């Protein structure tokens, strides 16, 4: 079975972000088709600027997992990008495909649309925590290429107060699994 490799992530963050829509996230028996992401480079809202020391992986790697804890209760899953420079893509939402019983148990809901729509929900549904942080993609967490290119829309990133003019949130148009 073919999985995405480091070369996929070595490219420009915005390109990687768009190209992640439709790929299949595979983690410990659970699978989901990514339908929403946000790109972060060296803009004012990026951890490369606001959490420079904690987000070292955004500078030092590409094709690695970057996980952080937010609001004292949620993990957020990111993939590092850019062979030269800082970058990461936040995975905001996925359409659950396999392992739904495990996801339902982790999330405490039977509503399939609420399993992985939103970055905190997605991390919880897929069992993502800090143990994944810094690991290369392909070791414990894998991504299969998309089978088709969905229609992709762009808009403002959610939950930030800086660099709000950048339309670096990408999502599959008309997907019922996109957050908000």
Name the CATH homologous superfamily.
Methylpurine-DNA glycosylase (MPG)
Radius of gyration: 15 Å
- CATH architecture assignment name: Roll
CATH topology: 3-methyladenine DNA Glycosylase, Chain A
Taking the sheet with the most strands, its summary is:
8 strands, antiparallel
- Helix/sheet category: alpha+beta
Number of domains: 1
Task: Tell me the strand percentage band.
Answer: 25-35%
Would you count the extended β strands for me?
A: 8
The stretches of 5 or more residues where confidence is low (pLDDT under 50) are none
User: What gross morphology would you assign?
Assistant: globular
What is the CATH C level class, in words? Alpha Beta
Molecular structure report:
- It is built from 6 helices and 8 strands, in the order H-H-E-E-H-H-E-E-E-H-H-E-E-E.
- By secondary structure, it is of the alpha+beta class.
- The protein has one domain (6-172): Roll (3-methyladenine DNA Glycosylase, Chain A).
- Strands 1, 2, 3, 4, 5, 6, 7 and 8 form an 8-stranded antiparallel β-sheet that branches.
- Strand 3 and strand 4 form a beta hairpin.
- The chain is globular and about 40 Å long.
- The protein starts with 5 loop residues before the first helix and ends in an 8-residue tail after the last strand.
- The model has no long low-confidence stretch (mean pLDDT 92).
